[in-house]
Write a structure and sequence with these properties.
The complex is a heterodimer of chains A (416) and B (246). With 416 residues, chain A is mainly α. Chain A is 78% helix and 3% strand. Chain A has a domain of 251 residues. Chain A contains 15 helices and 4 strands. In chain A, the strands form 2 sheets. In chain A, strands 1-2 form a two-stranded antiparallel sheet. A two-stranded antiparallel ribbon of chain A has the order 3-4. In chain A, strand 3 and strand 4 form a beta hairpin. The longest helix of chain A is centred in the first third of the chain and has 40 residues. The N and C termini of chain B lie far apart (39 Å). Chain B has one domain. Chain B is globular. The chains are: A mainly alpha (416), B mainly alpha (246).
Chain lengths: 416, 246
């Protein structure tokens, strides 16, 4: 592999890992915020235990989202300075607003939520988790705005050898950004919903204590999964109409369309290969659609089954089916992402900047060093965190550290 | 104005997150037993998320307002930036994971990750600053890199002295020589600000073309960001009185 391939592999592995954890974050944050709202208004101790249990899993997962996100943000300047040089004045604005309006607030308030448990007023504590959830959405919104610009550049002019932003509204309203944002957000909800349903089904199947917690959680998970799967089909369906011609050609693998897309690009940009890799685009799209059908079927069936209390308690085959469903939304998210991003190739900014032109002048040795360093670190951490998530999920609400200590008894002394 | 915005976030990072890095570096000195170490970590626990995010914000400001400099600075110092990122990830994971499983070996391992990651962060910043300030690269940068690293460590001690109690507080005050805890903290903070400003003066700070659009947005957001952070500092203004979630 040449340096460009290594740089792409490095970015893909980082972004792919980030995407998995972030998808679960978006879903779990929402579910935790909703449950905490019920706990705060209703005062039911079961809801409080649910908040702490799902909140603990949310945090383990969130930490991985942060560290992969950090590396991804800096990789743009490290490996892709051709892109930041050329288009940074445009899509860099979306990234800047993402870090300030969304992630800065999200991170600050998350610290407040974790460590402010039993210390903040409970209404303030509830407001904090909602701020965390809504800023997570805002984060996804501005990242998809940046990504949407790369897919379908709008709102800019070319000045000299770089782009300048002329219409921020157009960049934000870009259909390639808006539809994708809703598609990804609802995908995150599906991921969280199946996760909660699957973990709950495990506990119902094993007849662990706290059946009440998991019966309620199972209903929340499935009650969210079914409408979310429907909604996602809507956004995904409309998105198909906004695909670039070359992506559509690769997806349909129609020789005529492929030739047409290639000829059009050659006429505009001169000789070259302008077609995305058909195999990847098709595999990504087909996997996504197949698993969507599986999720729709399971969510629909489960929605009916959960209406019967004896079934929720004792239908073990169904419990196991739900446990097996936990990884499915993750795979679907990844394959949808492969479909979208592989289908954009060979462009970094569609029709404006090729991926090969977007790279930094980095030596092969440097690229190998960073690839090995990031991969080794993340491989270990992903393994540890996945094990930890599974362990915490299996152990149930009894073993949760989050929020389990009353505020410090000794009289605190101000340090500043 | 673009430069002031960048300076605000970079200097904020150095002073606030610099203290977390320093406490991590001094963890084996401050905390001599697992229980002590957990209490030392509680000194930075509520703040570290809100502190490290200043660097994320600074990188966002670079990407939006100084896209050329972002590329030059990052890929021009490729191995150092990669090391810095890996150290940052390792330090954070140490903090997140140490308390998640009971067991002395697990906690000792992740405490080690916190210390190694913090030293890695401090030395990477030192190497980066040695390049920007003195133009020194490669192994020769190791010596000048120790100066900012020592500064981070000292800054961490002064912050720990403000946050901890009893023996831990006395240990943290070892370098202050009887001066007030607040005064030493202000001194190390000022030193970090000076280093940051000097480094900034050496960089080609030429804003890109997004300023007219982006600067008003950032200026509107700033009071809210500062208010959010102030709420955190106010909530956790008391000295550490026991272990935290981490």
């Amino acid at each position: 592999m040449d340096t460009l391939d290594l740089a792409r592999l490095q970015f893909a592995l980082t972004a792919g890992a980030h995407f998995l954890f972030v998808a679960l974050t978006l879903g779990l944050a929402t579910i935790v915020a909703v449950i905490q709202t019920r706990a705060t208004f209703g005062g039911n101790p079961v809801h409080l235990r649910m908040t702490r249990f799902w909140g603990q899993l949310y945090l383990i997962n969130y930490a991985m989202g942060i560290v992969t996100g950090l590396v991804m943000e800096f990789q743009l300047g490290l490996s892709w300075s051709g892109l930041t040089n050329y288009a940074g004045d445009v899509f860099g604005s979306a990234l800047a607003i993402e870090t300030l309006a969304a992630f800065f607030v999200e991170s600050t308030f998350l610290g407040l939520w974790i460590f402010g448990w039993n210390r903040l007023n409970r209404w303030a504590h509830l407001a904090v988790i909602w701020v965390v959830t809504l800023t997570a959405y805002a984060s996804a919104f501005f990242i998809m705005t940046a990504n949407g610009f790369l897919q379908n550049p709008v709102g800019h002019v070319l000045e000299g050898d770089r782009l300048r932003l002329t219409d921020f509204g157009a960049m934000v309203a870009n259909p390639a950004a808006q539809l994708a944002f809703w598609h990804v957000l609802v995908g995150g909800l599906i991921t969280g919903a199946f996760f909660v349903a699957g973990v709950s089904a495990y506990h119902l199947c094993r007849r662990t204590p706290e059946q009440d917690v998991f019966r309620k959680s199972l209903r929340i998970g499935i009650g969210l999964a079914l409408p979310a799967v429907f909604m996602n089909a809507v956004f995904g369906g409309i998105s198909f109409q906004t695909l670039q011609p070359a992506k559509t050609a690769a997806w349909t693998n129609d020789a005529g369309r492929l030739a047409e897309a290639q000829a059009e690009m050659v006429a505009r940009f001169g000789p070259g290969d302008y077609l995305p890799p058909v195999g990847w685009v098709q595999a990504g799209g087909i996997t996504m659609l197949t698993l969507f059908a599986v999720m729709l079927a399971v969510a629909g069936l489960s929605f009916l089954l959960m209406l019967f209390r004896p079934v929720v308690r004792g239908f073990r085959l169904w419990h196991w089916l739900l446990v097996l469903m936990i990884p499915v939304p993750f795979v679907t998210m990844l394959s949808g992402w492969i479909f979208r991003e592989m289908g954009r190739q060979p462009w970094a900014v569609y029709g404006l900047l090729r991926t090969s032109e977007a790279m930094s002048p980095v030596t092969p040795g440097q690229m190998r060093f960073s690839l090995i360093a990031f991969c080794a670190t993340f491989a270990v951490l992903i393994a540890v965190n996945t094990w930890l998530l599974a362990r915490q999920a299996r152990r149930g609400p009894g073993a949760v550290a989050l929020g389990d200590r009353p505020a410090d008894a000794p009289v605190p002394v101000p340090s500043f | 104005m673009e430069i002031l915005i960048l300076a605000f976030f970079v200097l904020g990072y150095l002073v606030l997150a610099g203290a977390d890095i320093g406490v991590g570096m001094a963890l084996p000195y401050l905390g001599r037993s697992p229980a002590e170490r957990r209490e030392v970590i509680a000194a930075i626990a509520p703040f570290f998320l809100g502190n490290e995010v200043w660097l994320v914000a600074a990188a966002g400001v670079l990407a939006g307002l100084f896209p050329r400099l972002e590329g030059e600075l990052l890929h021009g110092n490729y191995p150092v930036v990669v090391t810095l990122l890996v150290a940052w990830v390792v330090r954070d994971m140490g903090l997140w994971l140490r308390g998640r499983v009971p067991g002395a070996r697990w906690q000792a391992f992740w405490d080690g990750a916190i210390v190694a990651g913090s030293w890695g962060l401090a030395l990477s910043w030192g190497t980066l600053l040695a390049h920007v300030l003195l133009g020194i690269r490669g192994p020769a940068a190791a010596l000048p890199a120790l100066v900012p690293a020592a500064l981070f460590g000292t800054h961490g001690l002064t912050f720990a002295a403000l946050r901890l109690r009893g023996t831990l507080r006395e240990r943290a005050a070892v370098l202050s020589g009887g001066a007030g805890e607040w005064r030493t903290y202000a001194l190390t903070s000022a030193a970090l600000v000076v280093v940051g400003v000097l480094a900034g003066l050496r960089l080609p700070l030429e804003p890109g073309s997004a300023g007219p659009l982006l600067v008003p947005v950032v200026l509107t957001l700033l009071p809210f960001l500062v208010a959010a952070q102030a709420w955190v500092w106010w909530t956790f203004r008391h000295r550490v009185s026991g272990p935290s979630y981490l």
